[in-house]
Amino acid sequence: MGARHIGKQTVVFDDAPVIFGRYSIVGAKEGKGPFGMYFDEIVNDPLVGGKTWEEGESNLINKACIGAVKRAGIRQSDIDMVLGGDLLSQLMATTFGVSQFNVPFLGLYGACSTMGESLAVAGSMIAGGSADICLSVTSSHFAGAQKQFRAPLDYGEWRSLTAGYTVTGSGAVVTGKRAYAKELPWTRGRVGVAITGYTAGIITDYGIKDSSNMGAAMAPAAYKTILANLNDTSCRITDYDLVVTGDLGTCGSKIMADLLLAEGINVSDRYFDCGEKIFDEEKQDTHAGGSGCGCSASLLCGYLLKCMEEEIYRRILFVPTGALLSPVSFKEGKTIPGIAHAIMLEAVKL
Amino acid sequence: MGARHIGKQTVVFDDAPVIFGRYSIVGAKEGKGPFGMYFDEIVNDPLVGGKTWEEGESNLINKACIGAVKRAGIRQSDIDMVLGGDLLSQLMATTFGVSQFNVPFLGLYGACSTMGESLAVAGSMIAGGSADICLSVTSSHFAGAQKQFRAPLDYGEWRSLTAGYTVTGSGAVVTGKRAYAKELPWTRGRVGVAITGYTAGIITDYGIKDSSNMGAAMAPAAYKTILANLNDTSCRITDYDLVVTGDLGTCGSKIMADLLLAEGINVSDRYFDCGEKIFDEEKQDTHAGGSGCGCSASLLCGYLLKCMEEEIYRRILFVPTGALLSPVSFKEGKTIPGIAHAIMLEAVKL
Description:
The structure is a homodimer.
Chain A: E1 3-6, E2 10-13, E3 18-27, H1 28-31, E4 41-43, H2 53-72, E5 81-86, H3 92-98, E6 105-107, H4 114-127, E7 133-140, H5 142-149, E8 165-166, E9 169-176, H6 178-181, E10 191-199, H7 214-233, E11 242-245, H8 249-261, E12 271-273, H9 274-277, H10 281-284, E13 290-291, H11 293-309, E14 315-319, E15 321-323, H12 327-331, E16 338-340, E17 342-349
Parallel strand pairs in A: 3-4, 5-6, 5-7, 8-13, 11-12, 11-14
Antiparallel strand pairs in A: 1-2, 2-10, 3-9, 7-9, 10-17, 14-17, 15-16
Helix pairs in contact in A: 2-3, 7-8
């Protein structure tokens, strides 16, 4: 058996699947941010060649998938399953972004934790024998998200200081059996990244209702998932070179670190929140930072995996975070439950 | 390894996971239909005790999950993963329906194919070692779906003759390792149902744009998935006692059967479309029949699995079908891509 369930929430892989290819694509604002040099592609047209924001986001997904497949050195038809989703209702961006690929598709929704969920399912599918090669993808688009969750751009809505700025971007990852990595054109002797396991998130609801402070709504979920990962695996926080959360932003990441500290776990010297880092708050006026599925996905595919390939970090716990609200649930006065899935990544010689 | 990938789209399980428990719950109209006697629970209050349609749908999900866990004879904490989703944007019904369970949650979206997708992922998770016990769930609600996809009920919108009537209902299935079934209180010597494998669907788009004829939009996807299943497994259609599609309705099911017939496959003597069957068209005025995730899910959990336990049918190919449209994609003039996942079910002595 290639996978084992340990503790309450964690799955570890005996023969860990490895990442064959990755691709990141972002919009102009993200390209001008501190990580601009790491993204594979920066698109200046906010419609990404489409006629609508939604079509533009589909094009981001499409380009990210094609880029990841190309870099992996495989053919599209080698993919056994595409696993992905996005923030748009009924996964509109992903549906139209991958509909031409002619491979099985499983739609996933974990809000901004979707890249974590799709890597987790890919890992389980590959380690368990259900697939040889999977493609995980997610995206977000600033204008599409504003239109759906808040107000159309033309309204010139004021943004709260605790609000994140939705990242326009997508990340795609091709994952496969480690044994097959040797057959790829680029792997010989190179360092790659293995998914050694994951901790699946539990819906966590601390009663936050402010959709302009989603960092606060998601922070408890990230904290609980990280704690569960350490408990289930008997690891210490120092066993990871970097602990990465998705899009908690400046407010949420502080809450998350404080919650861990109350448990005696000091994450501060190895903590990286994608939302806090992706923009330059002083120059780019993004308030609490970046958010959206594309935030952690593009930084994973553009920056973090590259750092692992260069052995700057050998072990990363990647914990994208999702706020499980909808425009309807918000209007009906419901709380914003959070979820976070933790993916254990390790640099390995291929 | 507990799972094997065969052909282009199919996964088969060597040690097939079995269904530990199932529960179906529907609204009053479904309860008055021809299968009323088979459902575990019929709720006459259209709000299902909630304050909104969406809260009512969450309550359906919640009751279905609790019912399936109870019938399985396990504790809620025995579940390793909840796998589910619904038609509401950002999976609102499922999120709030399962948020109190304190077990890992993976949100899935395959429109009305979601019960197929969640059984497929559950099967792969269990057979591959990532989980011992999974809970798969989905739902739909007539009034919630009308409000979201069409017009609020108060508008008294006329329904097209090709349109399906969204089923108010939910179905939940607890699946686990076959070896564990022996430890359950109810299994001794009984006949249960195993998930022997599945064929994951490919997004199929024949260019249909009429959201009042979703049967036509989904029929090609069902046809392609059934054909792929037969090709990948080298089975003939007569190897199945029953081929079940989700919610193609009267129009879509005829298209599906015709498409198969053009390939020389006559499914007519063993074909059951849940959408076509769940209501009595003459007495209930539902036009093309039932639709929604809850349609095939409630008939699976209430009627079909019961028939298998009684060995009326020994092998069923369960193929729920999804129309991958959103209110936005429809308004923007996009096509309606379809998807269908085929689950191979077999009666087994436990």
